[in-house]
Amino acid sequence: MTTPPAAAPAGPGPDPAGTLDVAWARRFVAEAAQVVAENRVALSELDRVIGDGDHGENMARGFAAVTAALEKAETATVGDVLKLVATTLMSTVGGAAGPLYGTAFLRAAKVSDAPAVDGQGVHSLLDAALEGVVARGKAQVGDKTMVDAWHPAVEAAAAAADAGGTPAAVLRAAADAAAVGAASTDELVALKGRASYLGERSVGHRDPGAASSVLLLDAAARAAGEA
Amino acid sequence: MKKLINDPEAVTSEAVEGFVRAHEDLVVQLDQLVVARAGGAVRGKVGLVSGGGSGHEPLHAGFVGVGMLDAAVPGPMFTSPTPDPILAATRAADGGAGVLHIVKNYTGDVLNFETAAELADAEDIEVATVVVNDDVAVEDSLYTAGRRGVAGTVLVEKIAGAAAERGDDLATVAAIATRVKDSVRSMGVALSACTVPHAGRPSFDLAEDEIEIGIGIHGEPGRRKIPLASADEITDLLLDPVVADLGLTAGESVLLLVNGMGGTPASELAIVYRHARRRLEEQGVAVRRSLVGNYVTSLEMQGASVTVLRLDDELTELYDAPVATAALRWNL
């Protein structure tokens, strides 16, 4: 009888502690639904100042519907959950946020149709989501939109993943960068969306879509179980 | 906030239910929040679908009927409908000759109609889209989401609807809708703000003696706030940019639409019309057709908009063609 070499490293193969699975995706939805509900009034208040005052209502309605849909659904992969989030948000949120978040989650679902997602996988998922937002909304960094939260989030996720970070670490890096990015929208003049009609008058106010993006990314990081 | 409502959350659904029952000879409500022509899609005719946030009544459900829209999609108050009901409306309007989506240029409307058009395409329903952007108040459209779709939308729906009714194919109906869109400009003023029922307070702030020139139909800001002035002076501030943007010259023919925002008496709209017509005639422009009333409103907002459409013989003929809807009816 031979024994395997004791020093053999686990290698880059599946590591239960280093990947996210469908249970994470479900925890993420629960965390997101809760934090969106808690911030319903705050998000609508941001939107009232430079938009039409319904972003919190719309997002809360959407995530309540996602929670209900998920209770009845069988999901095997992260992608299954994200796809359900995508289609439900598209059909319940309305406004610009519905198609934007819907497309983001749909693109993320396409690259996470696997039982387990590692740190690089988390980066790919976030990158796909950003591409979806840009494809649909055609906004660039600096236009005072959710792209100003998502773009730095994806850059930070790439750096964390390249450094060998766990999925939780990658998500934390993304959420923190998104928060800085969202704060940067305070000083920007809106060039896209309804706030753009305010021109200079949009300065001094945070973009509601960037703010809700931070809530979602932070929920994803917390669901991944970092302290 | 004092409003004649039951539950702020139920305003749209209850209003649509009442509207449909009041006009049961013209329209039906589908399972989703969609208002379609009674009798269903017309075989072989291009279908016309429009929609957008509620609060602008009679737009769009008030324009469903013979000679105009086949289906309308009322979204939540001031919020675009989602792709699902837009797709349902597109199916209901499809008589096998394709469907034209008439979309007002707002980010939410454009994105949701775009998504619905993709879904319809997957079901082999051919969809063409025209995005209406007649609001000249938005000066720097390069640095914004672009000019907004306002009262000119009614004229696009009327004239494209007549083209579809006479049997034009989808490409032709879309081309005529685009021609109307390119020939129509509007600008509005608000004397007071409006209150979205579930928000419970006015969507923007105006002092007692202040008005906002260039207001959007959701209370988006316009070019500037100024002190209240006379009707004639305000009409000049609305008409001049419209005429300049159209590049109107002496000898041309136009349609003049003075639209109320919901809280303006008919008499005040007539006063605005009177001056706008005089000013156009002084410039040698012939006002061949006129429309004065509440067509694209902003809840109870006090205010009005002035819309001018450059007419040619074909557009005039299509405008005159028979129409039977809740809000427009003639030549039947």
Automatic annotation (TrEMBL), chain A:
SMART domains documented for this protein: Dak2 (SM01120)
Keywords for this protein: Kinase, Pyruvate, Transferase
InterPro entries the UniProt entry points to: DhaK_L_YcgS, DhaL_dom, DhaL_dom_sf, Dihydroxyacetone_Kinase
An example molecular function term from Gene Ontology annotations: glycerone kinase activity
One family name in Pfam for this protein: Dak2
GO cellular component: cytosol
Gene Ontology terms describing biological process: glycerol catabolic process
Every DhaL domain range: 23-222
PANTHER family the UniProt entry points to: TRIOKINASE/FMN CYCLASE, TRIOKINASE_FMN CYCLASE
Name the UniProt record assigns to this protein: Phosphoenolpyruvate-dihydroxyacetone phosphotransferase
Biological source species: Serinibacter arcticus
From TrEMBL, chain B:
UniProt keyword terms in alphabetical order: Glycerol metabolism, Kinase, Pyruvate, Transferase
Highest taxon listed in the record's lineage: Bacteria
Pathway(s): Polyol metabolism; glycerol degradation
Keyword Kinase in annotation: yes
Gene Ontology process terms (BP): glycerol catabolic process
Alphabetical list of InterPro entries matching this protein: DhaK_1, DhaK_dom, Dihydroxyacetone_Kinase
MF (Gene Ontology): glycerone kinase activity; phosphoenolpyruvate-glycerone phosphotransferase activity
GO cellular component term, pick one: cytosol
Short name of any one Pfam family annotated for the protein: Dak1
EC number from the UniProt entry: 2.7.1.121
Catalysed reactions listed for this entry: dihydroxyacetone + phosphoenolpyruvate = dihydroxyacetone phosphate + pyruvate
PANTHER family given in the database record: TRIOKINASE/FMN CYCLASE (PTHR28629), TRIOKINASE_FMN CYCLASE (PTHR28629:SF4)
Assembly information from the UniProt record: Homodimer. The dihydroxyacetone kinase complex is composed of a homodimer of DhaM, a homodimer of DhaK and the subunit DhaL.
UniProt protein name: phosphoenolpyruvate--glycerone phosphotransferase
Source organism (scientific name): Serinibacter arcticus
